[in-house]
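[job 0412] stage=fold_complex status=start
inputs:
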Amino acid sequence: MENENRLRRNMKTFYRLLARDKAKNFVIAILLLTTIFGAYQYDRANRLQNHLNNTYNRAFYELVEYVNNVEVKLLKTLMTSSPEMTVATLRDVCQDAYNAACNLSRLPVSFGTLSNTEKFLSQVSDLSQSVAKQTARGIPMTDEQYKTFMSLHSFAVQLEKSLNDLKNDLSNGNLKWENVGREKEEDLGEASENMPATFSSLDENFNEMPTLIYDGPFSEHMLSRKALGLTGKEVTEEQAIESIGKFLGKNNINNVTKLADNRNGVIDTYNFKVELANRKDHSVVEADVSIKGGHVIWYLFDRPVSETKIGIDEAKKIGLKFLEDRGFSNMKDTYYLESNGIATINYAYTSNGITYYPDLIKVKVALDNGEVVGFEAKGYYMNHTDRNLEAPKISQEEARAKVLRGENIKASGLALIPTNYGKEILCYEFIGKLQDKDFLVYINAYTGAEEEILLIINSEEGILTM
Amino acid sequence: MRRSAGNFFILVAILIIGSFIIFVPQKIMGQQNTGRISDLQLLARAINGEARGEPYEGQVAVGAVILNRVNSPNFPNTIAGVIYQPGAFTAVSDGQINVPIDPNSTVVKAAQDALNGWDPTYGCLYYWNPATATSKWIWSRQVVVKIGKHYFGK
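[job 0412] stage=fold_complex status=done
writing structure:
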């Protein structure tokens, strides 16, 4: 009883105190909240920082491990005598170098710092793949390739050393991930003593990397390709505008403005903005016309497509007619994709029963009124040329006998196919089914080698290959 | 006495409401961003963050640069790898890449055209806005193509 009374009295005093200092209480509440907020944010930031550091550490240590593997397996490759062993070790090099490159690109260095290292790893992976393929086909590694791998191995050793320096600095706390991103700017200042190893010095290992030319997408020769199909003399801006007029129809054009001279080194062009006539909205077409020959290389007209009224078969005919009217004869539609009411249809050049897949033109047809809203012929102008192909050395029947798997295998003639390293291969094309999926198989028309397998993806959006 | 009791409850109420304001939104925010977004979506989001407001051609060009990097030995070999490479794109660093976009928007069409092979940059690997670029390094690049506000280089 007495306790209860005392408690009540205490409570009363407490309430009275509270009431007296309304403003003070308010301040206390805010202070408390701020403290809680601060503590919570601090803890959160700490946890995030740890999580980030762990992610970066993982990427780094995996990189070190993969680079070690690359170095060892490159050396093993150089020791192999049998083609089976060479192929096996090269495949290992390929995979480990690929994984190393993946982890490298996850490091928080400032952008571009590790560009040469990335290139080294990509090319080692790519080259190993290419030579493994070659070896599997019964062509042993050439002396030159052997020397290249020797030199790549010494680069790998150097990379290993640099990574080890970084690893030491990282584990003794000299190097912190949060400082790594700022490396670049610091480099511009004076170098102080006891500077931790840096990622930019790691990248300098590759300043004298030899130029690698081989059958792979990352080979150096892929960077300096020239347009083989671009014919004609240099044209002036006025002549280029004339070409656009012919291409889009003069009546459709209100005004043409040149935006830029585009000296890109691949196909030099004039870049134009074309205002269309007789349109409600402000309708603009963007287009490039080659300086050599005055050919329209591509154009794009972005406009909304409301209702689709045209089927894909009609769109294909519209595209074909569009090309024929502009001097592209012998084109055949191959694959297409439908999205946002627009069909993008691929056309390949055909001649004497051969489909030339590198000579590709893409046409965008709007499915509301059949207007052609886009055109792209870079593939055609890069590759189209008189090729003087030799006659096939094996017959279609012999090639058919090389396709051992799949059902309903049907021949669909000769095709010249591009490779991702810029070479073209004449093949017999076969269509077949496996697991209810359509496949394309390409058999080399000279050697009978299986060159490519493509899966045909037939979906609502269109027909594509993978 | 009533008033002082009321006052006490106000204090408690402020604390409770305050904690909600501090803690709850982060939980809600964490729920975004689930589900896989396809390459097209990812590319479109990158274009949205990097080149919104540029002419259509300029949007396709930014998509093309990303795809050119995928095909270059000096860069990661996947679209996601290129887009999320640390420091590569400001739209990734500041989180704009996570802004959902309308599947019918222009950037999706531009991403589709880039994937279909339109490349107004003819193989460029870099672009920058000369009005805002701060990196000295980027200026050492040779300008190959100018589209809208962006310079493109190899």
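[job 0412] summary: Chain B touches chain A through 52 residues (CB under 8 Å).
[job 0412] exit 0
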